[in-house]
Amino acid sequence: MVTTQEAVMGEFVRLEVEAGVGTLRLDRPKMNALDAQMQREIIEAAVEADRRDDVAAVVLYGGERVFAAGADVKEMQTMTYQEMVLHGHLLQDFTRAVAAIGKPTVAAITGFALGGGCEVALAADVRIAADSAKLGQPEIGLGIIPGAGGTQRLARLVGPARAKDLIFTGRFVDAAEALEIGLVDRVVPAADVHTAAVEWATQFVGGPALALRAAKSAIDRGLEVDLQSGLEIERLEFTGLFATDDRTAGMTSFVEDGPGRATFTGR
């Protein structure tokens, strides 16, 4: 794992890598409005984070002031139906790319995470929010609905009734309510959000990368199917790990030295 910082740059999105943790940084002042260019750059950064062996886990971060205030409404205002038929695929592709990162991911949420910004956070495995953060899917006020995964991921996360309440009303929820309903997993002071997210991600550095990837795949794919199909997914992921060096190292270390002492290579 690298210990010095490296960065892969786009104009508005960059992947910063330091000590095995990748930070996918959104940086389009003032509110990180997610226009088409930014969506494409998120895809590129997510694919790069998934590909790189020196990235064990990924933090999604919009900076100290805001996570992301949503899609760029000015860009969409004049789009025709025909144009949105094409653009609608990109809207889902950029959150699909985040969700497809085969490593632990955590959204570090400061300020607003609204609309598309909330949908980016929903695509992460875990969400850590500032005590001053506000989240929501306010698209109904524009005469539309969430289009980057919000109707699907939000309902799976907080349940259909709560998802309908948030999407029907378009209301914002503060950090305390978000924690109560399971929309976020932890609330910390605003100054500590990025640090807390990096600390969570750091625990996976030097871990069994293929087992982590298999666990994430089994859980995410299993949620899409019935129980028996999910169990079959789990069985295949489980048995496949017996072909890995990390499984051999983990079990040998356990037998010879006790739990928690294995050294993994990610292979």
TrEMBL record:
Q: Name one GO molecular function term.
A: isomerase activity
Q: Does the keyword Lyase apply?
A: yes
Any idea which UniProt keywords this protein has? Lipid metabolism, Lyase
CDD domains attached to this UniProt entry: crotonase-like (cd06558)
InterPro entries xrefs: ClpP/crotonase-like_dom_sf, Enoyl-CoA_hyd/isom_CS, Enoyl-CoA_hydra/iso, Enoyl-CoA_hydra_C
What EC identifiers does the entry list? 4.2.1.17
| Cited Pfam families | ECH_1 (PF00378)
Task: State the reactions this protein catalyses.
Answer: a 4-saturated-(3S)-3-hydroxyacyl-CoA = a (3E)-enoyl-CoA + H2O; a (3S)-3-hydroxyacyl-CoA = a (2E)-enoyl-CoA + H2O
Whether Lipid metabolism counts among this entry's keywords is yes
| GO BP annotations listed | fatty acid beta-oxidation
**Family membership:** Belongs to the enoyl-CoA hydratase/isomerase family.
Put simply, this protein is called enoyl-CoA hydratase
Source organism per UniProt: Aeromicrobium marinum DSM 15272
Higher taxonomy: Bacteria, Bacillati, Actinomycetota, Actinomycetes, Propionibacteriales
